[in-house]
Design goal:
This protein is α/β, with parallel strands linked by helices. The protein folds into 2 domains: 154 residues, Rossmann fold; 221 residues, Rossmann fold. The chain is 44% helix and 18% strand. The chain is built from 16 helices and 14 strands. It has a 6-stranded mixed beta sheet with strand order 3-4-14-9-10-13, sandwiched between helices. Strands 7-6-5-8 form a 4-stranded parallel beta sheet, with helices on both faces. A two-stranded antiparallel sheet has the order 1-2. β9, α11 and β10 form a beta-alpha-beta unit. α5 runs parallel beside α6 and α10 crosses α11. It is globular and about 55 Å long. The chain starts with 5 loop residues before the first helix and ends in a 7-residue tail after the last helix.
Length: 404
């Protein structure tokens, strides 16, 4: 008798991926997490729910998104062949809507009236605001004031869609503080609201649930690449902050003979506060109700300040499944610094006519370096989002003439 597939056995019943994950939250939130878990395992696997979500993906989101061979980028490198899973073509411009529509649909079955979330780059906020508008729910998005200034176009989109954007000025005023604030708002009203977590982080069942909703990316990409090339890709690459896009992409390849690369933001260097590379520089610890690898202060307990040029990656922890897969040797920790990321941003824009999100540009940057090393191999990159939100920031701080 064969063992059950990986996705059916991970996480375990307590929400753990090995020693990572789990749930350590106050009793009232633990009760709501149990309600969400029960609903997900029952309603979320029902024919009506699955059929409705599949219809939404096809007719509202525009799925499936294509896999594209980046020939001019590949030729410019003279190395391995780079393919892109075009999540930038998913409605709202990123992968985030995949789990937002799933979470919002589940919230509607539970009779919730309000969706609450954090956002860094604003893509999750835009996606959840879109889902809330679709289902006729209230929406409250918590966002650090630093990111509000940096990602202004997405703030405007959220407000146009009817969401209330809550500025968060505590601490570094970026993604971690936005998560703290959103959690507090959910604790204040757990019965009528759902915290629609924006990544594969947080207490059980959210890492599992977000991964499963995002698995459509990997399922599509695997079938598309096989149809295109007749074989599986040699290498699969995705950027990782919390890691939702990577979890969805990797899910289809975990049990296949492919090398998986989680590309973290190396930022400006290896020192504390100069990057957000939890797998590379972190320690085991707890954050936002789960156990994972965390960038910490000298006490190895308190989450440290982090930095990334990409607002969606500046989180001091990583999804527990990524921590587990890396610890198990199945997932390779990789990285790209700011300079490599900006160069990749311009290279993809100019050679392929595709402006990537700065988050996705990290994955492209690493793929370019990997292609130089693996000249005869294929590299499938999850292009998790488009760069509309980033063009003003890049243009002002990294002007085009500097990257001619």
């Amino acid at each position: 008798m064969q063992d059950k597939p990986y996705l059916r056995t991970h996480p375990d019943v307590s929400g753990h991926f090995g020693r990572f994950g789990g749930s350590d939250v106050p009793p009232d939130i633990a009760h709501e997490c149990e309600r969400v878990l029960e609903a997900y395992l029952t309603i979320g696997n029902s024919y009506d729910f699955v059929s409705q979500l599949r219809d939404i993906r096809k007719h509202f989101q525009g799925r499936p998104t294509p896999v594209y061979y980046a020939k001019r980028l590949t030729d410019s490198i003279g190395g391995g062949r780079i393919y892109l899973k075009r999540e930038d073509l998913n409605h709202t411009g990123a992968h985030k809507l995949n789990h937002c529509m799933g979470e919002a649909l589940l919230a509607s079955y539970l009779g919730k009236k309000k969706l609450i979330a954090e956002t860094g780059a604003g893509q999750h906020g835009v996606a959840l605001a879109t889902a809330a508008a679709y289902f006729g729910m209230e929406c409250e998005i918590h966002m650090g004031t630093v990111d509000i200034a940096k990602e202004h176009p997405n703030v405007v989109r959220m407000e146009i869609l009817g969401a209330k954007v809550v500025p968060v000025s505590a601490g570094q005023a970026t993604l971690k503080e936005a998560v703290d604030s959103a959690f507090e708002a959910w604790v204040a009203d757990p019965v009528d609201s759902l915290y629609a977590i924006g990544s594969v982080v947080g207490p059980h069942p959210f890492p599992m649930m977000v991964r499963d909703f995002q698995s459509v990316v990997g399922i599509e990409a695997k079938a598309q690449f096989l149809d295109m090339m007749g074989v599986l890709p040699d290498n699969v690459v995705a950027c990782v902050g919390g890691g939702s896009n990577a979890a969805g992409m990797f899910s289809a390849f975990i049990e296949e003979p492919c090398q998986l690369y989680a590309v973290e933001p190396l930022g400006k260097g290896a020192g504390r506060g100069l990057n957000a590379a939890s797998l590379a520089y972190g320690h085991e610890g707890d954050i936002h109700g789960f156990h994972t690898m965390v960038l910490t202060e000298d006490d190895n307990v308190t989450p440290a300040p982090v930095y990334s040029i990409a607002s969606g990656l500046d989180y001091p922890g990583v999804g527990p499944e990524h921590a587990y897969l890396h610890d198990d040797g199945r997932l390779n920790a990789a990285g790209a610094d700011d300079e490599q990321t900006v160069r990749a941003f311009y290279a993809l824009s100019r050679l392929e006519g595709i402006i990537p999100a700065l988050e996705s540009a990290h994955a492209v940057a690493f793929a370019i370096e990997l292609a130089k090393q693996k000249r005869h191999e294929s590299i499938l990159v999850n292009l998790s989002g488009r760069g509309d939100k980033d063009v003003d920031f890049v243009y002002d701080n990294y002007p085009p003439e500097t990257y001619a």
